[in-house]
Specification:
alpha+beta, Rossmann fold, Alpha-Beta Plaits, eight-stranded antiparallel β-sheet, binds guanosine-5',3'-tetraphosphate
Amino acid sequence: MSLSPQQEINRRRTFAIISHPDAGKTTITEKLLLFGGAIQMAGAVRGRRNDRSTTSDFLKVEQERGISVSSAVMSFDYKERAVNLLDTPGHEDFSEDTYRVLTAVDSALMVLDAAKGVETRTQALMDVCRLRTTPVVSFANKMDREALDPFELMENVEEKLKISCIPFTWPIGMGRTFEGVYDLRNKRVVFYQPTERGKANAQVYIENLEDGTLDDLIGKGKADTLREELELLEVLDPFDPDAFARGEQSPFFFGSAINNFGVRELLDAFVDIAPMPQSRSTLTREVEPHEEKFSGFVFKIQANLDKAHHDRMAFVRITSGRYERRMKLRHVRLGRDFSVKNATTFLAQDRVVTEEAFAGDIIGLHTHSGLKVGDALTQGEELKFTGIPAFAPELFRRARLLDPMKSKSLVKGLEQLSEEGAAQLFRPLEGADYILGALGDLQFDVIRSRLEAEYKVRAIFETVPLGAARWVTAEDPEALEKFKRENRHRLFTDIAGNLTYLVQSQWALDYAAQQNPEINFHATMEI
Ligand code: G4P
C-alpha cells in the first residue's frame, strides 16, 4: 500500500550523531545501520574508511591522518520509519561544517564515553544544538569498561550541558561486572552478552524483578542495588516530549556499542520519540514540511564522492513537499529554473538515483547548476532560508604559487573551494594578495591537497600577520564610506561580496570597534 505524502513525511526521522572523537560515533553508526538492516556485517563502515571511492573519508588528507573530515548521509528504514542519519566530522577543525550539518537535522544523538562524561568537543557541539534548539538523545557508551557511576555521569551532563537527563535504560554494573541494562520503557532487564565483533547477539530478558529469577542470575547484591536505584529514579521528572523538543530534557541510554549492547533499545525508542521533520525559517515566512510545494536548501557541498570524476555534490535538505525525478526546480539565487534528472539518495553503502523524496530527506544534486551552501531550491517561490551562518575565521594564510604560470588555476581553485565552504577566501580592496581564512589548521591542509589533486596547482600557505576578522556593515552609508576610505588596506570582500575587516589581533579589533561606534562588526554572517 502506498503512503500519502503526508504519511511519508510523518514517518521521517532525520538526525545527526555528535560526539567527542573516540567516544564511539563510528561504532554506533555501524550498529544502527546493522539493526536497520542497511548493512549485513559490522566492519562495513570502518571498511569504507579504507576505500577511497566511497562516501566518507575520501580525501587524501583524511587518509593520511586517519580522521573523518567529511559528512556522509545514510538512509534506511526501521520499524516503519524512514531514518536519515547524518555523520558529522569529528575533528574540531571542521566545526563550521558540523554546524551546517546540524541545520539539516531535526534531532541529534550525542554519544558519550561513559568513563569520561562530557568532553570539550561534546560541549561545543551541544552549544550548537542549543543555538538551534535541536532535541538531543544521549547514549553513554563503553559500559563494558570501568565507567563513571551512572548517577555521577548524568550529573556531569546536567551540570556541564545544562540539560536534564531522563534515563530510558539503566545499567546494571559496569566493566567486568556489567550485567546489562534495565529498560525503563518496556520494564524489563536486558542481559548483556559480550559478542564476537560484528555479530548481533540474541536478546535475553526478564520482566519480573521480584520473583527471585534476577537474584539467581546476577546475585542478590546486584539485584538489590538495581531495585534500590530504580526506586531512586522514580523521583526524577518523567519524560516530557515538549521539554525534549525544547532541548531541556535528554532521554538517556547506556550500552556498549562495540558489543551491540543497548543499541536496539536506543534505536527502538529513538524512532518513536525523535521529532518528525520540523519547519524551517526563511526571510519571508516559516516553511512547513507538509506544504504541497517542494522546497529545500543546500547545507553542504562535498567534492570527490566519485574520485574518478572529481565531482561535487550539493546536499539538499528537503524542507517541504515532495521531490520527484525530472521535476523542475527554481534556483532562487540565480533566478533560473532547471530540471533535475539525477538527484542522489544515499543508502548505507550505495547511492541510487532518487525517484521520489519527501520533506526531511536529504538528496544530492550535482553542482553543475552552480549550487552553493545556503542556496534555496523551490517550485518558483523566492525563499531565502535563514540560520546558515559563516563564522569569522581565526586563522589566516596567503597562498603562494610554486609554479607562477598557474595563477588562474589557483584563483579558480580557491574560489571554488571557498564556495564549497572548505575555507573562506578574501580579496583585498587594494593590492593583489588573496587571503584564506579558516577556523582550524586542517582546513588549510585539505585545501592544499585538493588544489594539487583537482586543480594541479602546487601552492604553499604562508602565515600572515592577521588574527581576527569581522564582517562590517553600517546603517549610515556615509559612515561606511568614510570607514572604507580610512581603512582600505585592511578591508577585503568575501566570496559573496561582503565587506570584511581583517586585523592582526582581537585587541586591534576591539580598538577599531571602539573608535568606530557607527560601524557594526559581525562575528557571523548569514550565507
Ligand atoms: P569515534 O568515531 O567517535 O571516533 O569512535 P570509534 O567508533 O572509532 O571508537 C573509538 C574506539 O572505541 C575504537 O577503538 C572502538 O573500537 C572503541 N569502542 C567503541 N565502542 C566501544 C564499546 O562499547 N566498548 C569498548 N570497550 N570500546 C568501544 P580503537 O582501538 O580506536 O579502534 P579499533 O581498533 O577497535 O577499531
